[in-house]
Design a protein that fits this description.
With about 200 residues, the chain is an alpha/beta fold. The protein contains four helices and four strands, in the order H-E-E-H-E-H-H-E. The protein folds into two domains: about 110 residues, no CATH class; about 70 residues. Helix content is about 65%, strand content about 10%. A hairpin with a 6-residue loop joins strand 1 and strand 2. The model has no long low-confidence stretch (mean pLDDT about 85).
Length: about 200
């Protein structure tokens, strides 16, 4: 319990909390709307990729704040740049980027799950074949023994790989997915500061 209180007080020192919504505030100062998006991307604003450093920053903030807590994004710009149309397109562009990242994460997870199923099936086949050759066919000789032991080893290695991918590799990807799902529901506020 003491650790949770300490972690929460540390987060309060790093992030401000919106008193109305109790959401952690991710605050970013910008000189222009264009700083949000990749300067090399010539697409329209609503389809343009986010600046990679900005996306990394958001992901890091999203991983620091516990998943159960709400977050809000506050983007601070000079007051002279206030443009409601750019603001609206920027919000759409940010949300579209989150959707694309989620699509890629889901695609990666499906690939991992296919790999897990394939490894389990192959592992089962190797172990059944090893059992069959050892107990039913009863072949003798050094080469047949090596073959049977190779099937056992291959079966267990494939089974371990399936467990490894499920419990270790896909865990990080699932956590990343939770972060970006939370970003889809995140409120984005533009605040304008006087020069």
């Amino acid at each position: 319990m003491k650790t949770k209180k300490k972690q929460k007080s540390t987060l309060i020192n790093i992030y401000n909390i919106n008193p109305k919504t109790s959401a952690y505030m991710i605050e970013v100062s910008l000189d222009d709307y264009a700083e949000l998006f990749n300067g090399w991307d010539a697409s329209p604003l609503r389809r343009r990729d986010l600046e990679p450093e900005f996306l990394d920053f958001l992901e890091q903030c999203g991983s620091e704040v516990p998943i159960k807590n709400k977050i809000e994004l506050y983007l601070y710009l000079p007051e002279r740049l206030k443009d409601e149309e750019k603001e609206k397109r920027s919000k759409t562009g940010i949300i579209n980027n989150f959707k694309v990242v989620l699509f890629l994460i889901n695609k990666n997870l499906k690939k991992m799950y296919r790999q897990i199923v394939t490894n389990i099936i192959l592992s089962s086949m190797f172990l059944i074949a090893a059992y069959f050759f050892k107990n039913v066919v009863m072949v003798d000789g050094i080469f047949s023994t090596i073959f049977v032991e190779g099937l056992y080893i291959g079966g267990w290695v494939l089974l371990w790989e399936a467990f490894s991918v499920f419990f270790f590799d896909s865990y990080e990807t699932r956590q990343r997915r939770k972060i970006f799902l939370r970003f889809l529901n995140m409120k984005i506020h533009f605040k304008y500061l006087k020069d």
